[in-house]
Specification:
265 residues, alpha/beta, Rossmann fold, three-stranded antiparallel beta sheet, 14% strand, globular
Length: 265
């Protein structure tokens, strides 16, 4: 573990200590006597880079076991067989599903990324995934993803269509499915794209000084991912972050907070 990764672990502990007075991280008095909670997380490259921090947050918050299923460039349809298997073998308390809209793999049948056909295919596959989990009593969290650089500079008015559709899908399952706009954690005002954000007071602060304020880099050079100095390849595959990533940490925290709150309600 590098020095910066050790610092990241300290960041997690400090974060949890700082917010214990908030309901999002409060625990019932009998928490120590509860059986182990089980969480599964499925996703693409954004989850792949964020999952080490997500796992740390879960571990720090209580008796929670996490199973990770994420790989860059994948879509919901790639994971449906595994979701069915996991739902019945693990019977998790929570399933977290994060997908940004990749169409690289064969199960997307050549849909153009961001097209209405792709959005419809994602919603159809997510409906199957949701039903797979709710049938075994699992609460599902659907995660929104951030705007990327190309969408921002191209003034893409449809960049948020998938997130909007996912949020509407969650509304069809009250009490069983929750939508979380995790992407906002690495966006600027009005969901703008930003390369950096002001450093969190407890995290390593290694980025530029902007208007007198210390910042951390939160997006990769490709304008899509989180790792500092690391970009994905042509089919959305990425490596794990070699150093501390403020963007991955913020995204993981946005995903983890509502899950922890739900498990401790």
């Amino acid at each position: 573990m590098t020095r910066q990764w050790k610092a990241a672990v300290v960041c997690v502990a400090l974060l949890l200590g700082a917010v214990t007075t908030l309901a999002i991280f409060q625990r019932p008095t009998d928490h120590a006597n509860r059986p182990q909670d089980r969480v599964v997380i499925f996703g693409d490259s954004l989850t792949y880079q964020a999952e080490p921090y997500f796992n740390l947050l879960m571990k720090a918050s209580g008796n929670i076991a996490v199973s990770d299923y994420a790989f860059g460039g994948t879509a919901v349809c790639d994971w449906l067989p595994k979701m069915r298997s996991v739902a019945h073998s693990e019977r998790p308390d929570v399933a977290v599903l994060e997908f940004a809209g990749n169409t690289f793999t064969s199960c997307m049948d050549g849909c153009i990324e961001g097209s209405q056909a792709a959005v419809s295919r994602y919603c159809s596959n997510l409906s199957v995934a949701i039903q797979t989990f709710v049938d075994v009593g699992t609460h599902v969290f659907l995660e929104g993803t951030p705007i990327d650089y190309q969408e921002w500079i191209g003034h893409d008015t449809h960049w948020n269509d998938l997130d909007d559709a996912i949020a509407a899908l969650a509304d069809k399952y009250p009490g069983q499915v929750t939508y979380v706009d995790a992407g906002r954690s690495v966006e600027g005002p009005d969901q703008s794209f930003v390369w950096t954000l002001p450093c969190l007071y407890f995290e390593p602060c290694t980025g530029p000084v902007i208007a007198g304020i210390r910042n951390n880099v939160v997006r990769s050079p490709d304008g899509t991912h989180f790792c500092v100095g690391q970009s994905g390849n042509a089919v959305g595959q990425v490596d794990g972050c070699r150093t501390y990533s403020s963007g991955a940490f913020r995204f993981a925290t946005a995903m983890a907070g509502p899950v922890i709150a739900w498990l401790h309600h």
